Amino acid sequence: MDWKMGQAAILPCRSGGTYVMELYEWFRKFINECPSGQITLHEFRRHFCDGTVGTESAEYAEQIFRTLDNNGDGVVDFREYVTAISMLVEGSPMEKLRWSFKLYDKDKDGTITRAEMLEIMQAVYKMSVAASITQPNPLTAEECTNRIFVRLDKDKNAVITLDEFIEGALDDEWIREMLECDLHTVKVERPLKSPGPP
After folding, report:
1. Is 85 within 8 Å of 183 (Cβ atoms)?
2. In the chain, how many H helices and how many E strands?
3. Which sign does the torsion angle of CA 73, 127, 85, 48 carry?
């Protein structure tokens, strides 16, 4: 399997499963782990990410959490969670890229700097290596970041805007695969079952 941004932790692909069943599994986990209907960053790390690669996922989990927390109140409620998971399962490429942009834009200023992108890339690389889930990627996190910046920063002003991010990713499959966040970034405690032999 090629290494890609969205596959820091493996969740079985949708083949053999349906959209409704996949959503149900994610919602069931949220309700089981968070009966109050809200989850804090600490709980999110413990229940949704630490099962994959332990402490290596902490940085990435925090950024995922901040992106899920739309209103910035420090907790993710069921509505925020449902909205994000539904979109990541069934959203259009444009919707997924908008969400991924928020993941990279750590300071929420509407642009992505090279440092912001590199920080996320490095966290994902650490997770991928720790989980031993991918074949070695010939590019380092720094090389991936540099390649993406060269292709996306059209006006050469050292930041990537939302428009540059979406336009560049839609025009380039490699970039889209590297940048598009999906449900492989967070592990479900009990893997989804697929028909047939393992």
Report:
1. yes
2. 10, 4
3. negative
Which among 1-5, 32-36, 193-197 has the top mean pLDDT? 32-36
d(CA 123, CA 8): 9
- Closest-CA residue to 187 (of 47, 24, 37, 69): 47
Residue type, 118: L
- The span from the first CA to the last CA of the chain, in angstroms, equals 17
With residue 113 as reference, give the H or E element that holds it. strand 111-113
- Torsion of Cα atoms, 182 then 5 then 11 then 18, to 10°: 30
Question: What pLDDT is attached to residue 157?
Answer: 96
Q: Is the pLDDT of residue 11 over 50?
A: no
Length in residues, the chain: 198
pTM exceeding the 0.70 threshold for the entire prediction: yes
